Each structure stands twice: as C-alpha cells, then as structure tokens.
Amino acid sequence: MKGLRLYKKEKLCSTVAIEQLFMRGGEGVQGALAYPLRAVWRKNPRRSSDAPVAFVVSIPKKRLRHAVDRVQMRRRVREAYRLARPAYPMPDGTRVDVAFIYVADKLCSYRSVEKAMAKLMTAISGSQCKEGDE
Question: I need a surface site. Which of 24, 45, 86, 119 has the fewest CB within 10 A?
C-alpha cells in the first residue's frame, strides 16, 4: 500500500469480527481510552486481508443525536487515523482488528481527535510489539 489512502481492505466489515471485539470477556481483547476516543482491539490471525490493521469507527447516536454531527465526527476520526497510520507501523505478519468509539457528548475539534488518535495508535502498536517479543 502506498501513500495515505484508505483502502477497502483496511475497513473492518465482518460482523463476526466486530462481535468478537465487543464480546464481554472476549479472548485477547484489549482497550485504551484517550478522550474523546476509546479503542478496542484484538489480534486476528485468521483474517484473510493482507492489511495489518482493519478498523471500524463507531459514533453512538446516544452521544450525538444529529446525523450531521455523527457524520462530521466519523470523518474527523477517519482522517485522524489515515494521517496517523504511517507513523505507527505494525510488525510484519500482524493482523489487528480495531474499533474506535467516540465517547464525548458534544462535537470535539479535529485537534483533540488527532491527539487522542496518536495516543491510541501508540498503545495499539506498542501492545503488538510486546506480543511479538514474547
């Protein structure tokens, strides 16, 4: 993959994989919070895609009532991920499923989303490097 483009294979579409991320007491599920985002991830070696990370963005209707606001925050989170991704490479052969969940009750600036994304990406890539060392 070249450049900063988001490809289809990087989007987590499998309902089974998404359910495994949100299952209580799920095996190998880890999480981190960096306001206004929360990330939940798990290693998924069975995923057929060759992208190291597959992600999904969730903006709950309970948090932002207006669809316009949800779409705007979804775009901000996706853009922050797209630009932060190259700075945090995953070890070769790693397959990780990630869900980014918006936890704030109001619209947040892109700057705050960008800072939170950097913290979450550090946590995700750091946990994968530690697992690779073991």
Answer: 24
